[in-house]
Amino acid sequence: MRSSNPVFSRRGFSRDNGYAGFNTAPQAGGAAVGTQANPYAQPQAGNPYAQNPYAQQAQQYGAPPQAPSTTGRMTMDDVLMRTGTTLGILIVTAALAWALLPVDDANIGRSYGIAIGAGLIGMVLALVQSFKRKASPALIISYAALEGVFLGVVSSVVDNRIASGAAMQAVLGTVAVFAAVLVAYKAGWIRVNRRFVGFVMAAALGFIALMAINLLFAVFGGGDGLGFRSGPLGILFGVIGILLGACFLALDFKQVEDGIAYGAPREEAWLAAFGLTLTLVWIYMEFLRIIAILNSSD
Question: How far apart are CA 95 and CA 111, in angstroms?
Fold first, then answer.
């Protein structure tokens, strides 16, 4: 089962036309799509504003936060609307794939082939968006639609052939993680600073490296590779994957908050939606994997 990796699917903020922008681009389920330049990962030594690229701009030019509602800047409503659109398209295509691509013995090969193809194309679109300086709504919407096809078939396979109710359990787990991180972030229990981001990036790099090695062993040696995605180790790494996803949700919240406060252009809300969608897909896939392992008869 493929894993979504939003960790490496985003760039941080950019400064275009004098304004800071929210640039994302996690991969897996939307696939891990390669490390991106991250302003959090490149702090300026001795600069207390290093973790906040918008604050750096404000410090440099002496400019206060913009008034988004009157200056065409990104607002929370913009982010919510774009995120709702992206997730809504993903959910609709997932439901259609579930209904129209059966996973019985006679059709599972064809259905899974279509799903893998959709997932690979979605990964390519995510890569393209990740390296673009500006948001492309068409790319982001296309990614969401194709990712939905992949998730719909994979979820159907797990739900119908391994663990009944797995998809709903994974959805509930994803929603619970999102709500918990949001509450913790708003309460100040999670502080997104240079140390936090450095730790998360290092952990994510190690996680992806181990998963890549495991995949290589599985491809060339057969079986489950080193066993990082099955059995007790698979459960452990699934939990680690969920925790990493939770950490990247905190980074997403920080970037959205800074973008709104310091006047990111309104179109950057699409990139915020893209990053949040990638992260949520990643968390969902890790929950689904854990449920499949716990209910596997192997």
Answer: 14
* Cβ 268 vs Cβ 135: under 8 Å: yes
Helix (H, G, I), strand (E, B) or coil at 263: coil
State the pTM of this model.
0.78
Six-digit token pair at 154? 């994979």
Using DSSP bridges, classify how beta strands 13-16 and 19-22 pair: parallel, antiparallel or unpaired.
antiparallel
Q: What secondary structure does DSSP assign to 51-86, as a single string?
A: T-HHHHHHHHHTPPPP-HHHHTB--HHHHHHHHHHH
| Among 103-107, 141-145, 226-230, the least confident range | 226-230
Quick one: DSSP state of residue 107? T
> Any idea which residue has 């992260």 for tokens?
279
pLDDT tens figures, 166-201 = 999 999 999 999 999 999 999 999 999 889 999 998
